[in-house]
Protein-methionine-sulfoxide reductase heme-binding subunit MsrQ (Rhodovulum imhoffii), 200 residues
Amino acid sequence: MNRSGAIAMGLRRVPVWMVYCLGMVPAFWGLWLGLTGGLGAEPVRALEQHLGETALQFLIAVLAITPLRRAGVNLVRFRRALGVLSFVYVCLHLGVWLLDLRSWPLIWADLVKRPYITVGMAAGLLLVPLALTSNDRAVRRLGPARWRRLHRLTYPAVSLGGVHYLMLVKGWPAAPILYMAVIITLLSFRIRLLRVRFPA
Ligand code: HEM
């Protein structure tokens, strides 16, 4: 058996629940660092950033599934788990922000006065219908074609997530630019694929 065959065989043996368990490790790691004073001078902000960045990484992983399949690495079985994990991290990220402010007027002011928060919220809201329909019953009820159309919301959601990150940093740090470059590359691959499947 060649190397890619061995990898494919190995991946087939990985149970999906293991992806959920491993996917929660960054959350517990963040919590552990928070409880042991390992998050620096602004622990709440650091936790918020850690959870936001992890959410974005999972969303990007979802987007990478199709190009990887084309390259011979089939991770389609794990797509739903990765999507659900990204939603869980967005909820935790949002939860830390809400707990940090703990006042509706402050939350409202942040939401309307800070464009990066508005953009983040828009990305988060787009993920809600995706999370609610990430189950077999929803696929059956909507039918595969409508379900697939609905799940194209992943593309604006991940783009807004990347823009949200770019907007909140000052100057031109490498990380958000790199995330955005990866998002644009993966999206252009998806758009090319959609054009091939549904030519104008
Ligand atoms: C649901 C509404 C959201 C709110 C209210 C929100 C709010 C915030 C806040 C307050 C920060 C920290 C800013 C600082 O450094 O002081 C942040 C950072 C961040 N958020 Fe969000 N966000 C939301 C949604 C999202 C979504 C949907 C994603 C990605 C899919 C995301 C990804 C990030 C990233 C990557 C960072 C920066 C992490 C870093 O600095 O390493 N956020 N967000």
